[in-house]
Amino acid sequence: MMGRRLLIADDDASFREVMSFTLTEAGYTVDAAADGMAALELFRRQRHPVVITDLKMPGMDGMELTKRINALAPGTLVIVITAFGEVDTAVAAMKAGAFDFIPKPCDRDHLKIVVGRAFEHSRLADENAVLKRAPSSEGKELIYRSAAMQTVVTVADRVAESDSTLLITGESGTGKELLARRIHRRSARATGPLVVVNCAAIPAELLESELFGHRKGSFTGAVRDAKGKFELAHGGTLFLDEVAELPLSLQPRLLRALQESAIDVVGGEEPVPVDVRVIAATNRDLAKLVDEGKFRLDLFYRLNVIVLHIPPLRERSEDIAPLAKHFLTAYGGGRPFDLGDEALRRMRRYRWPGNIRELENICQRVTLLADGGVVPLELIPETTPEAEGMVVSAAGRIQLPAGGISLTELEKEVIVQALERSGGNKAQAARLLRIPRHILLYRLEQHGITGKGNDEKS
């Protein structure tokens, strides 16, 4: 929940309530305070990635609150609220460390756009911080030993030089983005940009502008021209991850961009030509989505030119050892780690619902909890007797094992697996579990399940 939690400070109760309602409706968790001191106390108890504050409040004003928050947590993004005509005050707040400003009264759509931009900025900053500590994905090569992955890589290298649209399929955490990066590096476009877009991570109302850009004044809050990802990827490659999450309303726009090599900028008068090679990826069955009316058939055919399917880790156990050794070395800080025969056997028996991403997380946990040497068995997951005893009958019913099972632990494990399979995206995890998203959020809180992940709606 922390990834989508924000703090509002405003002494105007009605305006504070309207903002809270608007942002809660948009999927955020909102804490609110009536003045600067109360807001600072809330912030001290729980750090918020984004804070919205009015500049004029009794006691501690918004300018002082901005300075205090920046001193406590420099990574927090503060959005200030300014009355009409207070441009100079807003500029002063920006110089004091504010991220952006919004006018008062504020249009609801403009508020959501500014807040969405702040959270996206915060997410990218967090990712950059993680990448500085972890092995870089930019130049990292795929690690594999299995014949199955060798076949995938051979085909990928063969088609890298073409400009054909590619579709990479596979479960979450199998390395689809890494394969896309390899294809880009080995293509004639290697000197151009590689722009990555996660279609599930950007709110639907912002996705059109993110992909195709917008012109100043095209909608409330569009105070300047902005290039979209297609224009930013000009001369290079655009990687559309989780393309199945693209709203139906935007799919014709993507189809046109692929067919015409031109985009319609929001609010623009003429199509803008773009020279972009598109690589799309999905962990869902696009053909099934077409049958269900959730994905356009013509776009499916346009993306389905060349398909590269990455098998899940459980189907290529030969890759577990080299991957584990790589991650233990990368996170070990120079300390040598030895898997040991029993740990490796346990890893090969495990089903790896989160695939390589889950293996990396476990190896990182090992390096944090162990001092080096042989990896302790208790840090390696194993298939429990309860899970082994539970089977699904032909009628689709779960068969209870003879020794019984903890329903609470079973529910918790299923939720954790759904989050791992969806890469931390709670909206997707809720769909996997066939429950409303707000029910999933309640269960997460009830079970105390936390962790980094994308909490965007999609």
What does this protein structure show overall?
By secondary structure, the protein is an alpha/beta fold. The chain has three domains: 2-131, Rossmann fold; 147-311, Rossmann fold (3-Layer(aba) Sandwich); 315-447, Helicase, Ruva Protein, domain 3 (Orthogonal Bundle). Helix content is 44%, strand content 14%. The protein contains 19 helices and 16 strands. The strands form five sheets. A five-stranded parallel sheet has the order 2-1-3-4-5, sandwiched between helices. A five-stranded parallel sheet has the order 7-8-11-6-12. A two-stranded antiparallel ribbon has the order 9-10. Strand 9 and strand 10 (272-273) form a beta hairpin. Helix 13 (320-331) packs across helix 15 (355-369), helix 17 packs across helix 18 (426-433) and helix 18 (426-433) crosses helix 19.
Q: How would you summarize what this structure contains?
A:
The chain is built from 19 helices and 16 strands.
Biggest sheet strand line-up:
2-1-3-4-5
For the record, the count of structural domains works out to: 3
Mean residue pLDDT: 84
The description of the largest β-sheet is: 5 strands, parallel
Rg, Cα atoms, Å: 24 Å
CATH architect. name of the largest domain: 3-Layer(aba) Sandwich
Task: Report the helical percentage.
Answer: 40-55%
Q: Structural class of the helix and strand makeup?
A: alpha/beta
Query: How many helical elements?
Result: 19
In CATH, the topology of the largest domain is named Rossmann fold
